Description:
Elements: H1 2-9, E1 22-28, E2 31-32, E3 51-52, H2 54-61, E4 66-73, H3 90-104, E5 112-119, H4 130-139, E6 143-149, H5 171-182, E7 186-190, H6 196-205, E8 211-213, H7 229-244, E9 249-253, H8 259-262, H9 275-293, E10 298-300, H10 313-323, H11 329-343
Parallel strand pairs: 1-4, 4-5, 5-6, 6-7, 7-8, 8-9, 9-10
Antiparallel strand pairs: 2-3
Helix pairs in contact: 3-4, 6-7, 7-9, 9-10
Amino acid sequence: MEIRHKAWLGLTEEEPLEPDLPICDGHHHLWDYPESLPEDKVPYYPRRLRHYVLEDFVKDAAQGHNITHTVCVESRAKYRTSGPKELRPVGETEFVEDIATRSASGQYGKTLVAAGIVGFADLTLGAAVAPVLEAHLAASPRFRGIRFDTTWDGSRDVPFVAKAPDIFSGKKFREGFTQLHRYNLSFDAWLYFHQIPGLAELARSFPETTIILDHIGAPLGVGPYTDKRDAVFQDWRRYTTELAACPNVVVKLGGMGMPERFGFPWQEMPRPPDSQRLAEDMAPYYLWCIEQFSPRRCLFESNFPVDKLSYSYTVLWNAFKRITQDFSPQERADLFRETARRVYRL
């Protein structure tokens, strides 16, 4: 499947636009799952691509865009196999820290891969999550925050992880969330569009904690939402307007290449979309976020290798550049690099 997909991606090739524009890729993943590991023990996306390590990312990123830094976000990879269960996610931070150290040596090119690291800690542990956060920080000086997958939907035709839609209101979760500010850590929120009001309430309750909304809050386009894109878009706009009123929230522009969530047909096309097609499809969503949050509270992300299902790295960043071609130099600097560097303290 990987060989076939690689050949398909190669059917659409572009030269990078504005190759000198500095970029911080605000969200990508790195993982390495043994072929011997049973499929039910591997998260959804890595089942298709078991290995995506430093060399793989560098190969995707080194196609002409000026990627100066990246932020690596958790993907449940390389957990410790022994010791207390709550500390096992620290193994992923150790794995990524090793990659970041090798990248910083310069032997893999100019990009500082994983200059910032976002891991996982179970906030439902309440105050007992503190030792986990301390272990992450001890494992890497690049550790900047945690991501907690709270995706939930009432339909079995939509993939989700959480057991309930309102995890943010739980007493133990909030007790654990309080610890983030104590350790100067941010919170990456991965959820669906109809859960955004709950995130807004959380943001209002914890104004001192930086919250990053991943993948624009996922306005779904599959399952019961397949033929309701316009209605979902209107609901999503209303929810994000409410969220934008919270000054401690930043939004990541990206992630739309996940077909089983966003529902765009790019992966089913005879050849991958070019950057002009992507820009046309993505612009209504990204321009709305930029208008509501401002460039200082928005950042672009590749979400690779997950979004690699739908387009190449070079084409994606070309699309981002097309969408923002009429923006001022300062606005583009924020969107492409400075917001990410500021939020993740790179």
